[in-house]
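[Automated response] Your request has been received and processed.

Submitted sequence:
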Amino acid sequence: MRKIKVAVAGVGNCASSLIQGIEYYKAHEFDAESGLMHPDMNGYKPHDIEFVAAFDIDRRKVGQPLEKAIFAEPNCTMIFQHDIAPTGVTVQMAPVMDGFAPHMEDYDEDQAFRLADARPVNVAEALRESGADVLVCYLPVGSERAVQHFAEACLQAGVAMVNCVPVFIASNPVWARRFEEAGVPIVGDDIKSQVGATIVHRQLARLFNDRGYTLDRTYQLNTGGNTDFLNMLALDRLKSKKKSKTGSVQSQLDTPLEARNIHIGPSDYVPWQKDNKIAFIRMEGRGFGGAPIELELRLSVQDSPNSAGVVIDAIRCARIAQERGLAGPVEAASAYYMKTPPRQMRDSEAREALEAFIRGDEGALPAATRPIAAEGVQLTAAE
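Generated structure:
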């Protein structure tokens, strides 16, 4: 099999963990305790992913070799793979648009944002020249116009997209239709971690209902010290993240909670935590005879490695969809790997649909995940 050629938009902590992981699994391919959900997916191993392009706007990364840029400040994720083979990729300047929150320029030297003094490239042209099969979007939360710009570039270049951020592309019917008409697959939106706050909260919410308990109210409070949390101190950029995380948990309940009884979202930026994310989950409900139940949980994870294994799977799903001539949202992969997919499913059902997709069992695939002709009317994407 040939390599899956991948471009990365945003060379932050998540990209660092992903790239470290690809190198790590070259030496740990046969480790049974590997931390991967799918060590092999239709013959594709993690090390079959090859990086061919990268985009950022920070002066400490633009113009640098990708294998060096992933360790540049303000990145602060754990380093579990020190030696990265030369990629031959130089980080290119992306269009800035709304790609950063202005308040991020005012922090200490390590975390403060520093805009590169460089001319933005034509992203669609750069994707075509790189030969990329898939673009992974890791732009900051709230970068609505910038994410849409990269989505547009994918359509123009015929490159599949894995949208890891809560800017709604795959789950937006207008954008979804444009990807269908262009003959381009997309997996999105907003990546779930392997064992993160969202997947744990979803499972607990479903457990309450499946065991006959009524969930009356719940919250999830998160703290962290990476640039993702720093970025989300701007409340206008936080809206889409709260919507995505809240909707993901609500989707698992037979009867969604009233807005006043559910609160989910990042709570504060704690610099010394760095890439360590701590989540506090509380659930209150009623069971047999109306007897009360209260559950409290504290989860501590390294945030970026926790999502990298999911992205490795999503990339391979996007490539498999390409090879099969599928277009538009890959619903099974989106439902299992993303917080806000085009169609929410219970996680057990999403996993079954995903395994059917991987096997190529077309009869078991969601109806919308099908081959679509590339011709069609070009629609205008909604904001």
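Summary generated for your ticket: The two ends are 39 Å apart (CA to CA). Residues 183 and 373 are 6 Å apart (CA to CA).
If you did not submit this request, please reply to this message.
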